[in-house]
Structures are given as C-alpha cells and as structure tokens.
C-alpha cells in the first residue's frame, strides 16, 4: 500500500463496469451559466431586447450556434425552437447543474444557446438518476457524484459522465450485463445497482488511482468488507449530492463544529482566505466560523474547492465591457452565504471519511476480484451496445422551427 492506494492486481475500470458514458457539455459561451438564476434572466432579457444588429454580437456565435440557427428543444424543457434572430421568446427557467465536483450552478436549458448540450443525458435526468463524473486530475476524488446533471467541467478539458441508469425512472442500470449477479454469487449476498455505485463511491475517493479518464475500481471478494464499503459509500453519495440521494436530511456538522456567520458578508468581496488559528473563513469583512482546515484545503480536480467556488461568484475574469458575461450582481446575496455554509459542511464531513476510505482498501483486507475473473465469467468486456445510449422517447420533443423530433 502506498499513499492509501490499494494495490489490487488488474482491477476492472469504471468505464467497463458502467459502459455508457457521455462527454461533458460544451457550452460555447460563458453567459449561459451562472451561480445566480436572476443573473441569467437579466442576461436573457438584455439579449432579447437588443436590436437585431447587436444581438449576434452579444450572443457570441460559434461554428455550432448562432442567432440565425434554430435548434430542437432539450428533453423535458420548454424553450422556444425558433431562431433567436426572429423570436428569442421568454427566458427559459434556469435549471441547476453540477459544475466540477461540488459547485452547483444554474444553466439556461435552451439548445439554441448551447453548442453541445448532450440531449441524451437530459432524457434520463430525473429524481432516480445519479451521475458519476470522472475527475482525472489529482488530488481529490477520482469520481464525483451528483443528482443534478453535471456539465463535466474540470480544470483542463471535460470529464466523462456515467449515468447510473440508461432509462428514466431508474430503469435499465448502466452496468455491464451480468455484473451484479456475478458479484452476488462471489460475495454470497444480493448486489443491487445502488450497492455497486455506493462501492464505487467508497473506493474512488481522495488518493484513489487514476490515469486520465481510466479509473480502476477495486472489488472486494469479502462479504464483510463489501457491506462496510457499501454503507460507507452511501454516506459519500449522500454528501456528494448534498443530501438529495441516500438520505432524508441535508448534511450538517454536529453542534460545536457547525459553521455560522460571525460577520455578515457585504458588497462583493474580492478575496477569500482562511485563518487556521480561529478556524475562520474570511470573505472581505465577512467571516464564517468554525471552518476546519480540512474543508479549506479539500481539493477536487487538482484545485482547492472553496477557492474555486468563490472565484465563480465574482465578476467574470476577462469579461468584455458591455458583454453578457459582464452582467452580474453588485452585492453578495444571503442565499450565497447559506450555500457556502452547506458546502463547508459537506467538505468537512467528506474529509472525515477519508481515513475510512483508505482503510477499506488495505491489500490485506482481500480477497480481491480482478478484471480477469470477471472476464472469465463472461461479464467483461461489456458488449458494444452497452456503450451507446438507449432509445428513449417518453414524449414528443419539439425540433427546430416547431417540427417534432423522432428518436
């Protein structure tokens, strides 16, 4: 064992256990995403009110999208499909997405303004779905999990997104055929898709091995270790999803450790810092405490989570004066402070779990199930069709210019 990593011979890869994956969203323009839904509404209104000659410049055309191009509705959304040059229509209600590992932002769900929105993901995004998003850059967890649709963003490029289910309503698990049955035989206990994802969450935390998009998933052959890992992984999933999955309450630190606003954040603070002596998070003249060092130093995708979260709530760096990206808030909303306190709680509780995640994967806690054993059972490699999306159409989807799409 080195650095808490499990030295398992030939562990299977996440991409084989969960074969269907989708590249990250390609937005094409920064103004379609924000930490504040009211900012997106204001940007849309400015675009809609602009004279036709100015609208194209505000939009920021790309090879894939422009104001003179129509596009289909995103599944489950109600945006117009006419050209933006003709009829922008009202602002589509922003939807919450996951940006990176832990940042919950808002997005305009209008395919006319998104270069590559990945509609196949929108078709399966519902209250039963869980998304696993690869984080190739260390330090930090190798896989992040969200209930919201992730955009796949990371520091350099995009991480592939693996939905747990291929169809809405928690139907048809996105797992190699026969995987749960074979694991159940080897372990002597029933294995469900939710169990498998919980094990993935427990075994791919901070310190887990990865090589780019290739994430090994050590699989135990011990029923006792499996049960321990599944219980631990359910708590990891609960924290990664901010309490939306695997639990009925929202994450909160216990009394005495719970952070509170000690000094109200006013204006738009231009820096964030941490005082380890007082365990205080400093935002201009504002102060939140106690915030443990473990939360302040927690990283994902090779970057400090809290510092990156803060940077996305200030002025857009490099935004051109008069552009839609430059349109933002002039004061720090109270809700943003509440979101910050919740994020601090999640990171601190996740940091508490890291020693247990490393202990779970000590080599002597085997036996371990390698990819060769699953291959011998005919589970791996998964058949080619499992790497493609399922044919999903639960309702008619409006195509460009009002035509109905057929899938």
Compact description:
This protein is α+β, with helices and mostly antiparallel strands and 407 residues long. It has eleven helices and 19 strands.
Can you describe this structure?
The strands form 7 sheets. The chain has a 4-stranded mixed sheet, covered by helices on one side. Strands 11-14-13-12 form a 4-stranded antiparallel sheet, with no helix packed on it. It has a 3-stranded antiparallel sheet with strand order 5-4-7, with no helix packed on it. It has a domain of 281 residues. The protein is of the alpha+beta class and 407 residues long. The protein is built from 11 helices and 19 strands. It is 28% helix and 14% strand.
Relevant terms:
globular; disordered N terminus; 407 residues; alpha+beta; 4-stranded antiparallel β-sheet; 11 helices; single chain
Question: Which percent bin holds the helix content?
Answer: 25-40%
| Spatial ordering of strands, largest sheet | 1-3-2-6
Uncertain ranges: 1-8
**Beta-strand segment tally:** 19
**Structural class given helices, strands, pairing?**
alpha+beta
Give the biggest sheet: 4 strands, mixed
Rg on CA atoms, Å: 22 Å
The average pLDDT is: 93
Oligomer: single chain
- Which band does the percent of strand residues land in? 5-15%
Which outline best applies? Answer: globular
Number of helices: 11
Alpha-carbon distance between the two ends:
49 Å
